[in-house]
UniProtKB/TrEMBL annotation:
N-acetyltransferase domain: residues covered: 4-157
Name of the protein this chain belongs to: RimJ/RimL family protein N-acetyltransferase
PANTHER family: ACETYLTRANSFERASE, RIBOSOMAL-PROTEIN-SERINE ACETYLTRANSFERASE
Organism: Streptosporangium brasiliense
InterPro entries found in the cross-reference section: Acyl_CoA_acyltransferase (IPR016181), GNAT_dom (IPR000182), Ribosomal_N-acetyltransferase (IPR051908)
Pfam families in UniProt: Acetyltransf_3
Length: 163
């Protein structure tokens, strides 16, 4: 398994963020375009001022190659996990290692009990990440997401502190 470091986002990480969101598949993942240094800093800032969330830059060999986060932490000690990696870092186990490390942190440091995530059912790579990181499939949410006017089914996964 590849070794990853999780750390807070820093202003000097903006070029890595711009590079990642310059990829067509990543561009649609943000609420608004991340295509300028200012937009990158604003994205980082949104994550930095929330009580219900924590995002981490994923670092391999000193370079930022992705993001992993837990958000929407609720009164039931449940959080929503998300992850992405830059195109050049894919296929090496980075997202799996980061998701595992995030889960360990969320259970130990935040005291969460349940972590959930979802992926479009046509995203086999994200499903593999979730499964390899210990998130068990729980079912399909029909037509949950909409990108460019197209509805997508989402498979939900969860991992418990007791798993």
């Amino acid at each position: 398994m590849i070794e990853v470091e999780l750390r807070g986002w820093r202003p000097d990480d903006a070029p890595a963020l711009l590079d990642a969101f310059g990829s067509p598949d990543m561009a649609q993942q943000a609420a608004r375009p991340i295509d300028t240094p200012q937009a990158a800093l604003e994205w980082m800032g949104v994550w930095g001022f929330r009580d219900d969330a924590q995002a981490f830059a994923v670092v391999v060999d000193g370079s930022v190659v992705g993001n992993v986060a837990v958000s929407n932490i609720d009164a039931h000690d449940t959080g929503w996990v998300s992850y992405w990696t830059s195109p050049h870092a894919r296929g090496r186990g980075v997202a799996v290692a980061a998701a595992r490390k995030l889960a360990d942190w969320a259970f130990r440091e935040r005291g969460l009990f349940r972590l959930e995530l979802g992926h479009r059912i046509n995203n086999a790579a994200s499903c593999a990440v979730a499964t390899r990181a210990g998130f068990r499939p729980e079912g399909v949410e029909r037509a949950k997401l909409c990108y460019d006017g197209v509805r997508y089914d989402v498979e939900r996964h969860a991992r418990l502190a007791t798993d």
